[in-house]
Amino acid sequence: MAILVDRDTRVVVQGLTGNEGRFHGLRNRASGTMVVAGVTPGKSGQEVDGIPVFDTVADAVAETQANASLVFVPAAAAADAVYEAVDAGVATIVCITEFVPVHDTIRLAAYARMCGATLIGPNCPGVLSPGRSNLGIIPAALFSAGPVGLVSRSGTLTYEIGHELAELGVGNSTIVGIGGDPVVGTSFIEILDQFEADPETEIVVLVGEIGGEEEEKAARHVAERCSKPVLAYIAGFSAPPGKRMGHAGAIISRGSGTAEAKRQALEEAGIAVGTTPTELARLVAERSSTR
Asked: Would residue 247 show up in a list of annotated catalytic residues for this protein?
């Protein structure tokens, strides 16, 4: 079992005929993902390396029974693409697109929840269950299957930590890059709850960064609701106050959202915090039953 995506996930790529959509859609298929359709308005009847293209997500779902969507469209069209996927009954939507306006994301997240869909992103690397399914831009070759669930605001740190774990003989159940914008479709807490309910996930790794208070909220939730071991890493200890670091959400404002404050909150909740990705991977490996 895995969370969000598995071997039965049937993916429609919105923007499959574009350069990024084609590259990553075919790459995901090559790693074992069932990419069953693409959507580009006005290009129905075309194919991308054997994958049929439809004008609408509704048409793609009707013809291929797609149950997940991967969104590779420009920022100006991203909101409409997500709404279209939700309205077509798609259960899991991964929006890779960056520069989606925050107010659009607020409305998208609320609409998806109201309709019973899960929105990951925007501005995220996606979701990977090693050996089962990959929705996004996460390099599947760096990861192996195992008992560690990983949820992260950072894409590149996700890759690094997953690779470090694999080098230590520890694999992942599911990797979820929720995105680094100030507002995202799915929170740390929502993913933590899914990992808590997943019988194949024994340990959870949380990768945060400066800015906002999502890590502090997650720490309180872990203390109150999570029975599984949770370990963490926070990026940005050397970030100067007021400077944006990588993501739109990674900015310290009025003294709040610092890496030190987040580490303190996590440790007070009983969460071990690695000082480097390498140290975090070692701490996880020491607790893993598969090593």
From this structure: yes
Q: pLDDT tens, 41-94?
A: 999 999 999 999 999 999 999 999 999 999 999 999 999 999 999 999 999 999
Please check whether residue 224 is in contact with residue 268, taking contact to mean a CB–CB distance below 8 angstroms.
no
Q: How many CB atoms lie within 10 A of CB 147?
A: 21
The one catalytic residue among 103, 163, 221, 247: 247
What count of residues does the chain have? 291
Instruction: Select from 159, 1, 28 the least CA-distant residue to 94.
Output: 28
Cα-flanking dihedrals φ and ψ of residue 219, to 5°?
Answer: -60, -45
- Residues 198, 70: Cα–Cα separation, whole Å: 23
User: Mind listing the pLDDT tens digit for each residue in 89-139?
Assistant: 999 999 999 999 999 999 999 999 999 999 999 999 999 999 999 999 999
Burial of 151 (0-12, 13-18, 19+ CB in 10 A): buried
Distance of CA 73 to the CA centre of its chain: 17
